[in-house]
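# step 3/5: fold
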Amino acid sequence: MEFKTAAAIVAGMLLSATAHAVPIVNTNVRPVALGATAAGEQSLQTVLDNVFGAGAVSAANDQSAAGLWGSATSSATMIPTLIIEQTSGASSQKFGMWFGTDTSNIYTVDLFFGGAVGGSTTLQQSAVGIGIGNGQMIISAGPTFQSQCGTQVNCGLFSNALINPTSFGFYFATGAGKTAYSIDSMNLGGATDFLAFQGGTSTNWIFAFEDGTDNDFQDMAVKVESITVPEPGSLALLGLALAGAVAVSRRKSKQD
């Protein structure tokens, strides 16, 4: 396996849809059992220790069931940072965020492409869309910068009616065609391919992904700052709204 340590973010937007039109609800069940770490690779626990401090967060016991997030800042600005990527398909993988109301109505944002190797940038949402990066990423120690737009970073301002700074999820896409969404029910067979860890009571999180079947969940690890889980009441209202939308859709279908 190729092993890379990185701290990068990129961005771009891409329209994507899955085959089943079902409401997006957070039904994740955690914790899940972790598999053994391959020789020569950092374990998920090591990654968490390096970011949050030794023993502060347990990879086995502190897995959050959260699958949806919202911005924790009034300006809706977040800072995603790629912590580690250790997989043979690194050059073709993507990490991003998704917005939507059901699995056939999703707008996805590629926050970085495979091969990102340094730096971090901010992602800001506004009434007109979502803006990502300024084309600059730190690629070596010191004040050395280089534009990576179009290769590692898909910079720009993107707009879509589904973009919502108070409700979004994340995903990891492999070059082999697998996409691991932050809500298990959106994944093939309801698979758990995504784990989330909160840094204590902070609004900083680590997202860890599984690209295969060994369940070590350290194929890609990303830190995202300034996000929080939406209030339970908001999720309940979202669920009711989606249920209403489905009911209306079914009535229309019967009339056609």
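# step 4/5: annotate
DSSP finds two helices and 17 strands in the chain.
# step 5/5: archive (pending)
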